[in-house]
Amino acid sequence: MPATDSSSAATSVGRSFLSLRRDHHNHIPSDPHHSNSSDLHEIDAFQRHAADLLNDLVLSVSDSDSDDPFLSLAWTRRLLDSFLICLEEFRAILLGLGLAGGDLARPPLDRLLHDFLDRAVKVLDLCNALRDGLDLIRQCRKHLVIAAAALSSSSDSAAPRGEAQIRRARKALTDLTILMLDDKDVSGGGQRNRSFGRATRDSSASHGHGHHRRSSSGGSSGSGSGSHLRSLSWSVSRTWSASRQLQAIGGGLTVPRAHDVAATGGLASAVYTMGAVLFAVAWALVAAIPCQDRGLQAHLATVPRSFPWAAPLTTLFDRILDESKKKDRKHSCGLLKEIHQIERCSRQLIEVTDTAEFPLPDDKDAEVQEATQELLQVCDSLKDGLDPLERQVREMFHRVVRTRTEILDYLSRPHNATG
């Protein structure tokens, strides 16, 4: 499966970070005080870089000229870029400590790492549910394309749109509305048998923690078999809840004690930082993308201002919550900007075409033409943005699996092992 450009960049950042640690410890093996000071400096640099990445996301929120509008597909891809970079740097710090002869299996660091790994594994189901949500948006786009094609079929003609065109478009928009409404309050359904664990289309192949078998139809391709809209089911269990999963990921994430920070050479702060970033990104993705039983009740406990990333992360939470409380977004199946455009365009076209007079009067026909152009723009945006975003969520899944496996492997070694 091809890697995204962002994942390649994240890998490059992580490798360069790790190689710097190797070179550094190869040159100063005899001065433990110097080494400890250097470790603290690198951990501080990691936290400051996380702050910079989060701050860039926050600044783009208030930038009206930004190419990546807040909660758009493009902005969500930037969010995942930031997460992948943070994860690679975190992994490099931990493995760098191991290569330098440190021992991650000593308390209290072993306990903190196992706690982080428990949170990380909970993100894997969330990634599968997010893929389902992106698939739902892809299904919505199919209805948009049908409506846009019907309404724009006489755009090159001076003749106004006729009854047959309007009825075809309204049928597609009605199906779209049913699809979106049906998934707003969905509490389950059959299993879609989709998972990021699928490395190939061979039904016998598997990878990582993804274990659901993928159907031959591919789930998102759609078919002419006459299957109803509710055939779009979820790959997680009927009782699975994105809201509860977020609470499990963020629950009990506490600021490390000063004693633990000192005892771990500062690594306790790095583990806490990565745990907070993991939860924040998962929370933002659930806010943006349709998920089974989605909800934003979970919230990160107050972070001390001594952490450089505390302010931008808190601002990000607050801005997303503010967006979710807006009157026209409260009952949306996701806060993604493109979902809002889908709902608004569909509602507008249904209202404009709600007439028994055919062909449409010139004024209404002009309204339809204007709304259709916006509909076409939404279709193009979804066409260009959905696949890259899905690849990044897939990359998030596999990076979390790899990081978790490497840390567990290191923790399982004898305590007297030396890198």
TrEMBL record:
Keywords: Membrane, Transmembrane, Transmembrane helix. The keyword Isomerase does not apply. Residues 184-228 are annotated as: Disordered. Its main location: membrane. It is found in: Membrane. The keyword Cytoplasm does not apply. It comes from the Eukaryota. InterPro entries: ROH1-like. It is a single-pass membrane protein. It holds the Pfam family ROH1-like. One of its GO terms (cellular component) is membrane. PANTHER family: BPS1-LIKE PROTEIN. Belongs to the ROH1 family. This is R3H domain-containing protein. It comes from Leersia perrieri.
